[in-house]
Amino acid sequence: MRNKVANFRGSDEVTTPRRQVLTALRDLGPQTRIELARQTGLSPTTMTRVVAQLIDDKCIAEGETVSRRGTGRPGTEISIVADSYFVVGVQIGIGFVRLGISDLLGNCAHIDGFSYQSGTPAGDVLAQVGHQVVNLCRSAGIPNSQLLGVGVAVPGPVDQQQRRLLYPINLDWRDVPVADLLEPIVGVPVVVEHNVRAMALAETRFGLGKEADSVAFVYLRTGIGAGLVVDGQAFLGGVHGAIELGHLRVVDGGARCVCGSTGCLETLFSEDALRRRLERHGIDPGNQQPFAVMLEAAKTNTDLHDEVTLLTNHLATGLSALINLLTPEIMVLGGALSLASDEFVENLAMVTRDAVFPVIRPTVNLRRASLGMDAGVNGGATVALDRFFYI
Ligand SMILES: [Zn+2]
């Protein structure tokens, strides 16, 4: 029988004193040694040793002497030196790649990217990713000695060692050794994670989910997917950890889906489906997100307004299923959903609330993501920081 604990990424790792100190500084901001000892429960000897090592590594530094009520003697504040080391976050999407450089506190900058044709071999795309990572760091003036690693958010399940992309449903790539292909080019270690789970982690570590114990992140772009983080750890689910929200059947006898089933949520919400719906109304979204274009057009087009209402109901069916089963504290709407209007989010929350078990209703908390369309870059960076810095 599977070990229950193995359903969470990172749960098999020992929590080291270094990790305790660093995550306390990340989550709570600058702390004195006394405050850090209280937060982590570490002995004074261990605390002194760990802090000295980290100062020696230049990734934390001493600042002002402060005296806070209730903490006894004045102490010197310690904080993470955010720009002492960096990671690169990469999102490999369907037909596009985005990448950026993140500091130790998850702030991403120098964001860049490229698009690729469907049918391009994985090796070609990854070679281009590798060279862009190198160029990005060079132009930002970051030497490899300051680059801890690269985190790649991919559109499909990954292997247990987090080095391979197994089988993305919207690409014809299979079992791609992402880390093995990138590492010789970038010269630093690479870690791979399912894109939506990576975004959920980013939102948990650095965004809306900082205060919550459980966060579900729902991402709409080419398709629709969800990721769950509980107690700071990514939930892996049954097989390779994908929560396939997009493949929940919401329409009986509905359209055929790429997964082989019919009536999936994704048959209504995929970028292609939304685009076709707009075209039926004579609207060409061009390079804009079709979902955002549809919401805008529905303000003046009553037929489209009715269709948005229908879509809202179907999405609420999907979200309510997720809430009934998993009861996350916060449900974060990301990707194209982060572009939705207040009115849409309020309506969606109302319909979702009506569809969940009554006792759970008051806890339904839908929020637009704090991370924008480049949430995958933040996601990749967060996974790299977890793996290569907060250890
Ligand atoms: Zn499907």
How are the secondary structure elements laid out?
Layout: H1 17-28, H2 33-40, H3 44-56, E1 60-66, E2 75-80, E3 86-92, E4 96-102, E5 108-115, H4 122-140, E6 147-154, H5 178-186, E7 190-194, H6 195-206, E8 214-220, E9 224-230, E10 233-234, H7 265-269, H8 271-280, H9 290-297, H10 302-326, E11 330-335, H11 342-355, E12 366-368, H12 375-388
Parallel strand pairs: 3-6, 6-7, 8-11, 11-12
Antiparallel strand pairs: 1-2, 3-4, 4-5, 8-9, 9-10
Bound molecules: zinc ion (ZN).
Zinc ion is lined by residues 247, 257, 259, 261, 264, 266.
Notes on the protein architecture:
Helix content is 38%, strand content 19%. It has helices at residues 17-28, 33-40, 44-56, 122-140, 178-186, 195-206, 265-269, 271-280, 290-297, 302-326, 342-355, 375-388; strands at residues 60-66, 75-80, 86-92, 96-102, 108-115, 147-154, 190-194, 214-220, 224-230, 233-234, 330-335, 366-368. It has a five-stranded mixed β-sheet. Residues 1-6 have low confidence and may be disordered.
Strand content: 15-25%
Average pLDDT, to the nearest integer?
A: 90
Q: What compounds sit in this structure? A: zinc ion
List the uncertain runs: 1-6
For the largest sheet, list the strands in their spatial order: 5-4-3-6-7
Characterize the overall form. globular
SSE pattern, N- to C-terminal: HHHEEEEEHEHEHEEEHHHHEHEH
How many strands in all? 12
Rg measurement, Å: 22 Å
The number of distinct helices, counting runs of at least 4 residues, comes to 12
Q: Would you tell me the structural class of the helices and strands?
A: alpha/beta
In helices, the fraction of residues equals 25-40%
Through-space gap between termini? 29 Å
Largest sheet geometry: 5 strands, mixed
